[in-house]
Amino acid sequence: MSANDDSVRVVKWLSEDRTPVKSGTPICVLETSKAIHEIESPTDGFLRILVDAGRVVTTGDTIAVIAASVNESIPTPAPKAGIESAVPPTHSMRSITAKAEIVARSLGVDLSRISGTETITEEKVRALAGRLETRVAGKVVRLLIFGGGRGAVQVLNIVRRIPHIVPCAILDDNQALKGEQLMEVPIVGAIGDFEALMARGSFDEAIVSISANSDVRKEIFDKASGRGVKFANIIHPNTEVGVNVKLGTGNVILGSSRLAEESTIGDNNFISAYVNIEHHAVVGSHVTFGPGVFLSGSVTVGDGVKFGTSIGVEPGVRIGAHARIGSGLAVVSDVPTHGVLKTRIPTLRSRSNEA
């Protein structure tokens, strides 16, 4: 079950009360706010049902017991106040195979990030894990962060939600920061010091946290990757990812963003919160997005583009490499390479100046 669900609905029981069941046998179907789950018996025994089908219970409540014998005495749980007895079913809920749920738990995959309406299978879970998660077999990933400014705070906020990634050090060219800590992570030197850290085996993968300057992002990424540094994707767990999304490496994606089906995202992009990249859109590399940028379907964005905040781009528009798009704009036609779209700010006059 998701940690965000306070209650679940018992849809139906797949075995009768007091009947024998085997370990791994599906015994009931539960419905959460996001999916329908098939629950298996954890052991051999006799199913003793404590909650009728159609009831809504609090997450963590006991709904059944697998007893050692058919006549074993089972205590009846006391009813809890505030829980409705029934919730109407919804056809928008998705089903998930038991194997997919087990694999998702083992890989740390949030099933709500798998879009669509079809049944969630083991193959879909493994595909999402392969696209979005950076894992080192048998150990955590030690992450090196390039840049110790505000972008690093955003990266660390995400990393704290990903158990298998542990930030180990930060590099920043501001020498005044050396020896300091950011959110308990030490700032150990300048950007160029990554080669010494790499030679000592001090980190496994890296990420560029700098969000304001796409040229600097590219310079760091190209130099480090050229020296053999492996880059991670740091993606907030509540990011929605559609089917057949193609994602490069070194991307930072903040919370509540959406990568729609069949979209393509290159390397080393910084995608702020509430960014929507629609179906069949193509985003190059080293692109920075302010919050609330909406790319419609089949939009193409070249390398090194910088978006401001609250921007809408019409379907099929092509934005050339290194373009600059000002905040608050609606982009309805193509933008050339190195093109600049500025936001017009109206002049305000006070009434005292009016004749």
Which superfamily, in CATH terms, is the homologous superfamily of the largest domain?
Answer: Hexapeptide repeat proteins
Count of separate structural domains = 3
Overall spatial form: globular
Strand content: 25-35%
* Structure class: alpha/beta
Portion in helices: 10-25%
Query: Could you name the CATH class of the largest domain?
Result: Mainly Beta
In the predicted model, the low-confidence regions spanning at least 5 consecutive residues are 79-92, 133-138
End-to-end CA span: 68 Å
The CATH topology of the largest domain is given as: UDP N-Acetylglucosamine Acyltransferase, domain 1
Largest sheet: 6 strands, parallel
3D structure, described in words:
The chain is of the alpha/beta class and 355 residues long. It has three domains: 96 residues, RNA polymerase II/Efflux pump adaptor protein, barrel-sandwich hybrid domain (OB fold (Dihydrolipoamide Acetyltransferase, E2P), Beta Barrel); 86 residues, NAD(P)-binding Rossmann-like Domain (Rossmann fold); 108 residues, Hexapeptide repeat proteins (UDP N-Acetylglucosamine Acyltransferase, domain 1, 3 Solenoid). It is 14% helix and 28% strand. It is built from five helices and 31 strands. The strands form seven sheets. The chain has a six-stranded parallel β-sheet with strand order 15-18-21-24-27-30, with no helix packed on it. A five-stranded mixed β-sheet has the order 6-1-3-4-8. Helix 1 runs parallel beside helix 2. The radius of gyration is 25 Å and the shape is globular.
